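Researcher: Last one for today. Full complex below.
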Amino acid sequence: MAEIDESQAQREAIEVDRSKGDFKYEENYAFDAGVGLTPATIDYIAKVKGEEGWIREFRQKSLKIFQDQPMPTHWATADLENIKFEDIRYYLSKGQKPVRTWEEVPDDVKKTFERLGIPESERKFLAGVEAQFDSEAVYSRMKEELEKLGVIFCGPTEGLRDHPEIFRKWFGKVIPAGDNKFAALNSAVFSGGSFIYIPKGVKVAQPLQAYFRINAENFGQFERTLIIADEGSEVTYMEGCTAPKFETATLHSAVVELVALKGAKIQYITVQNWSANVFNLVTKRGVAEEDAEVRWIDCNIGSRLTMKYPGVVLRGKRARGEVLSIALANDGQHQDTGAKMIHAADDTTSNIIAKSISVGEGRSTYRGLVHIPKTLSNCRNNTECDALLINEHSRTDTYPAISVRGRKNSVQHEASVSKVSAEQIFYMMQRGLSEGEAMSLAVNGFVNDLVKEFPMEYSVELKRLIELQMEGSVG
Amino acid sequence: MPDSLVIKNLNASIGDRPILKDFSLTVPKGEVHAIMGPNGTGKSTLSKVLAGHPDYTVQSGEAFIDGEQIIGLEPDVIARAGLFLAFQYPSEIPGVTIANFIRAAIVARQAKGAPFDAKAYYNELYAKMDALKMDRKFTSRFVNEGFSGGEKKRCEILQLMMLKPKYAVLDETDSGLDIDALRIVSEGVNAMRGPDTGFLVITHYQRLLDYIVPDRVHIMWDGRIVHSGGKELALELEEKGYDWVKQDLAKA
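Model: Here's the assembly. Have a good evening.
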């Protein structure tokens, strides 16, 4: 009977472990924009941030666009209609300024990030960390040697204030406010996120990391990230996200703009583990100039609905774009993810590998767009979408839109759907693995070739998150 | 019986078709028992039922591993209690390497959070692969994916040797093997024979028993054992064919 006791102990250990993201501390905010969204909300946010002039106008104009645009439910899920914009709180902060040592971070907030393991990761392998709690960053620090090289790593508020000449040149250029309804919403109320500038030729060896934490109920988090890699520079940026489980819906709607100038390389890694009440509607796009490379690694775990299609505009000759994405849809979740590759110069190449896993009643959708106009030559795209279904009720759909014209361009598209069979599970269980262990092994096998492309630390984290999801999905 | 695999009056069906009918058998630790019988007589069902396969329903009866009742337990609990099944048709697990698979199986047997000695593990794994004449490159191949019949069976025996169960059930391990592979697989099993392990070798043909010489041979017919004897029974059966059993039964 020892085995049974052991598996019970295991389950208990997981309960504790699973709550890693699911905890919250008391809310007491010095600045609260209240519930609902009006021009007065915008004024309040701008005032708290001390913003004037063009950025205030940009916010107000974006609000107008947001209000005028219809919900995209003609192609997207009707679940979007369930977002109650009038019940959401758009700005919450304790009036904190980002500090440079964890000792200065208020105790409860510090505890939050300690439980999430952020300071430990920073010591181990990161070049810089920014930690955001609801609307504002509480901690921001980068290694001194990078600062000396002229690397900038701060929030958009500080970027706008301290580096207006770089900020204004690129802000809202890759993703204009009118790009889509949620990009407009973000443009109106954005707060937090990262502003990064890597000077010419600087290669940042270790990743810069941001961590986004939602703590308050009925809250909307709208961080805004802008990364500019100047000519010949290289950077890896990593974002992690969590929120506690609330009864009510929470909204996360970020905008991320990447600019890779001539010969630069940007790698942007997301490992999100949202709780099942979060609407996660994010617009991410990068521009790659001549010989530049933009690579998105996007791991979507959790959330009620995720809609996210990272894109690359290949604007310079020989530019390269890549999206590697993994989406896991558990019971009651819908992962609507994909990629966009817009070829706008000769000799450009793009690669999309999307793997989705649907568990229980989970649903995953791949939506892709590849565009190569006929005026171009020698452009190549490779698209691969693989779906894994864990049981009868899960669902997967693929909507690849590939428009390739011109004789000298090539495209390759492959799609597959596979299932974890009862015989596979039995075989693994006969070797002593529990049902949950067997399923997570099968899922990890399915994503294995893609995960090998990830930096080590993130592949370990992803493997652990998959294990937690699969353990939790066994009855 | 504390040191035996004991099966008592087992009745099991798939759907509403009864397959095992009052099946009883005892395999003491340290012995090799062979079950022979024609196709469709319930040999594979027996192995699946013992391993806890969810497709089969047990109406009545019991099975014990060293006194611990296993019928009704989850397959993984039965496996960790000490029963290993070498499959006739092992499943493929895409993306999972043999090394990681066996490692996961060993970790599942350890106490939660116990450290895993990777160096010792690989030393042992390589030694056993050498014994089975398996190329080291096999460790990084995905479990059973694209394997030949012989490679699959060798991989089953490798797992058996690494997991060291109390009792091993070999389900038609000889099917799909050429004579060289048969010899290598048999050597692997023979190397494991000893006081700590009991074997139940299920086979249709006598051929395998030339290599794995059994202590006892049982003939299965219509869901139960109808004849038991020493190793010479297998030869007798080979000579006279299964019709002999049928006639014998008709007489009885």
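The longest strand of chain A covers residues 278-288. Confidence is low (pLDDT under 50) at residues 1-19 of chain A.
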